[in-house]
Each structure stands twice: as C-alpha cells, then as structure tokens.
Amino acid sequence: MKLLGQAVVLLLLGGIWCQNNRNAKAGGKSAKKSGGNQGGESVQSPPAVDLTPGSTENTRGTGGSAEARRESAAGARAAGQQTDDMRLHFLQNTQVTCNDGTAAGFYLKEFRGSRRWLLFLEGGWCCYSKETCDSRYQNIPRLMSSSSWPQTKRGTGILSSQAEENPHWHNANIVFIPYCSSDVWSGTGPAPTPPPPRPRQGREKERDRNINATEYAFMGSLIIQEVIKDLIPKGIKQAKVIMLAGTSAGGTGVLLNIDRLASQLAQLGAETQVRGLVDSGWFLESQQQRSPNCPETVSCSPEDAIKIGLRLWNGVVPDRCRQLYKRGEEWHCLFGHKLYSTLTSPLFVVQWLFDEEQLRVENIYMGGQSLSEEQWQYIRNLGRLLKNSLRDVTAVFAPSCLSHTLITKSNWKSFQVRGNSLPRALHCWDRSLEATRNNRTPAKGCPFHLLDTCQWPQCNPTCPALVDQATQQELTLLQMLVAMGLDLQKVGLDTQGVEHSLPSMVSNGG
Predict the structure, then answer these.
(1) Which of 61, 70, 269, 318 is deepest in the core (most CB within 10 A)?
(2) Alpha carbon distance 213, 220 (integer Å)
(3) % residues pLDDT > 70 (the chain)
(4) 347: left (phi > 0), else alpha (psi -120 to 50), else beta?
C-alpha cells in the first residue's frame, strides 16, 4: 500500500507540472498576440541567452509570485550584463505608441555607478500620406510596429560596451530607442481613435476600407519624453552628462528634440549637461524639379514630404526656430543649417561630405547603372555646399567620402580627418565642454572642428570602400565612374592627373 500511495502522489505531481507547463506556453502565446502592449519589460519572446547559473524561469504569464518575478528579472539583467546586451523595455505609458498602436519602448544596457548616459535615436526616413505609410507598413513593418522587436539588442560603434571598440563611451548607460513613429521624431499626434494592431497580410482589405492615414499614431517626440520618465528609477536624474545621439532621421530627431530634452530634465530637477550628436542628419534642400502632383505621387521632394508630414504628424519644431518662420513654413526647421544657430544645447555634427542619402534624393545611386554629366557635377557641388553649411558649426567631423551614417559602424575608429579619429574628436569636445563648465581653459592640440580640405569624393584614404552593386567588387572612384558610363575626358577628368593628385590632396589636409 505504501508503494501504491507513493505512486499516486508522483502521478498527481506529474499532472500538476504538465498543466503548469501548458499554462506557461499558453501565457506566452497570449503575450505575443497582444503585441506587447503593456508597460515594463517585454514578454514578446524569451531572452536570447540566459547565462545565469540556476536562474528561474520567467513566470509572468503563469501567475507566479512577485518574488519569483523579481528573481527572474534580476537573472535576466545579470545575463544582459554578462553578454553586453541591451534589453527591451516597453513604455509604462501605454497611450504613447508606435504607428500601429503597439507599445513603444527602448533597449537599455546599464553600467552600474556610471553617471554618463547615451540615448540613441534610430533613423529610417518617414511616411507622410496614406499611400506612403501603407507602403512603409507593408515593406518595413519594424519601423511602424513593435510586434516583432527582439528581446535583446547588441550595440556597435558608439553603442558598444567594449572598450576596444568604444574607448570613451563603453562605460556609459546606453539606451537605444527604436524608430517606430515615422515622423522624424517630431510627432505629438495620436490617432483619432486607438488603432488596433494592423495585420501584415490582407492589405487589400485595409485599402478597401479607405482608412484615413491619420489613423496611424505619430508620437515620436512624445516617445522620447516617456523614455526619460521611465529612466528616472534607473537614476537618469543623477546623470552628470546625457548625450542624445542619432543617425539619419534619428540625427535630425536630435536637432529637433535636444533643447526640449534639456528643458524636461531641468524641470525634473536634474543638474546635468545635455548635449547632442547628429550623424548623417544634416540634409540640404533638393535641387531637383519635382512633380506638381505631390502628395498624389510618391516622388515628393524632402521639403514637400516634410511640409505635408508635419501637418499629419502634428509635428513640433524647436520654439526659437519656429518663431523665425510664418505658419506653414516650419518645415525649414528640419534642416540643420537653418536650425543650428537657434539651439542652446552643445551639438557635435558628423557628416559625410558626399552623403549617399542626399544623393539618392536626387536619384543618384553610386554603383548603379548610369551616371550623367549633370549628376557628376551635382556630386562635386554637394561636397562644397555641405562643407560651407558646416563652417560655423563648433564641433564637426566631416570626411570627404561617399557613405551614410558613421557612429554605429563597428569600425568607426578607422575613419580620420587630418589624422584624428571621430572617437578622439568626441573626447576632445568632451574635455573642452568640461573645461568651459568649470571655468578652465580648454586644452590645446585636441581638435574637434574637423572638415576635410580635399575636394574630391573618396579623396580621404580612410573612406569606406566603394562597392559595385552588380559584382560586389571594391572599386576606386575612377573605376566606378567608368563602370557607370561617365566619359571622364568629356567632364574634364584627366585620369592620370586625378590619380596623382589625390595623394597630395590627402597629405595637405584630407
């Protein structure tokens, strides 16, 4: 009888374990279906790797005890530190969302004891009408929805926590804010009614309903504000330095939000220096004539797209810049060369002088099939125009290269201007700001205003390599121009003269 009783107990325990296991799986499915529209840490997917010995299983979906949940969260944080991963947190305020109504959020990698914070805004252009937003949602849903965001993310370049890759910011608290608002981080306008998560299939049915584009939520600027609120328990109010950085549209987002962020932190009582790092977000107006049918056509100029978008997004621009323009002309404030002088926060601008995204606006694709004489002249002029627009910027790093974005490249230390890398220039700028703040004279011989002086694309020997899109082979500039069908002699390019002159251009300041 004793053996029989023990067998019954074991069977009962086994049944309870199986039922709990099924409940846990069901809870996970339910969390995925919900689109993660809850505050706090993500429950969309399990941690990528759990390296914590004896760590407890996440019991959030099974009605586990508060103590078990705390132990699980602690184990996840420990795993994140051990693997240098940033972990996903959704905003506590569930009313501030991505375009499709799923929860907005941020990835965080804490460095205990550090009073330096680096907040990064992701880029990815924008959408500005029903047609462009529907197309964007169909083709790049991660830029409009959090439903497929991974649980963890590992930073590269200035977001890396490895000292070898990121010598001066590896020991900061690093926050990556994914871009899911499609509004160049300017939006403050929710949808008229809370939109349900949009299915990625069956878009024809969506179009048949003739959904108004304003049913997407555009809340980029509000997302930044909510991230700051959620970081207060993490110690951001005690920060000594907060740097808001971003690439491409995220870089433009830095220009638009840096002073607003400084004001928010001051209102919270934080005594911190807020500064901005703008990478490849310093655009110039288009030189190309466009169709008068915008927005009916997708081929709007950036200016037209922003004009239309600001109304759709209920977009905000910095007050001091807005006051310079009449109503309806606020779009000027999304261009750095018009906005920069009105800002009060310190800014460092990183900009390739031959930015590939600026070229794509003019339908110029380096490594593509063809290049006209007029397009080549535009490329030559672009470097001069960008350089002139940056001359009055206090802190700048601008190599004469054909590329787009820099600070998150894992090899970002290898690019130089006049023998100085970008990490060194940022360190020099940091020292100068600290000296000024403490009424000391900044150190000499530590430059942070670095504009290439050579005039040609790719004249800087540290430029990223050019790659032929068809063959994926690396090419020199002249090889690429020939491959794209440009008659070098017709445009006044002496191949031998140019090849011989590039080294001298570089040694004289490139």
Answers:
(1) 318
(2) 16
(3) 73
(4) beta
Strand partners of residue 355: 403
DSSP symbol at 188: -
Could you identify the residue written with the tokens 């103590």? 67
State the burial class of residue 171 (Cβ atoms within 10 Å of its Cβ: 0-12, 13-18, 19+).
Answer: middle
Q: How far apart are the C-alpha atoms of 319 and 306, rounded to whole Å?
A: 17
| CA–CA gap between residue 353 and residue 403 (Å, rounded) | 9
Cα dihedral across residues 132, 133, 134, 135: positive or negative: positive
Tokens for 185, please give them. 């981080």
Question: Which active-site residues does the annotation give?
Answer: 248, 355, 404
H/E run at residue 223: helix 220-231
Tell me, rounded to whole angstroms, the distance of Cα 27 from its chain centroid.
32
Across the strands, what pairs with 396?
A: 349, 449
Tens of pLDDT, residues 205-230: 433 333 334 589 999 999 999 999 99
Residue 149 CA, chain-centre distance (Å), reads 15
- pLDDT given at position 124: 96
User: pLDDT of 70-127, one tens digit each?
Assistant: 344 444 444 434 457 999 999 999 999 999 999 999 999 999 999 999 999 999 999 9
From the list 338, 407, 426, 418, the residue with the least C-alpha distance to 165 is 407
Q: How far is 476 from 364, CA to CA, in rounded Å?
A: 18
Residue closest to 338 by CA, chosen among 318, 357, 356:
318
Percent of the chain that is helix, strand, coil (3-state, to 5): 40, 15, 45
Q: How far apart are CA 253 and CA 316, in angstroms?
A: 11
Spell out the residues 6+ positions from residue 347 whose beta carbon is closer than 8 angstroms to its own.
254, 255, 258, 275, 276, 277, 278, 340, 393, 394, 395
Question: How many separate helices (H) and strands (E) can be counted in the chain?
Answer: 14, 17
Long-range contacts for 403-406 (Cβ within 8 Å, ≥24 apart)?
403/352, 403/354, 403/355, 403/356, 403/463, 403/464, 404/248, 404/280, 404/352, 404/355, 404/356, 404/357, 405/123, 405/247, 405/248, 405/279, 405/280, 406/157, 406/247, 406/279, 406/280, 406/350, 406/352
The predicted model scores a pTM of 0.79
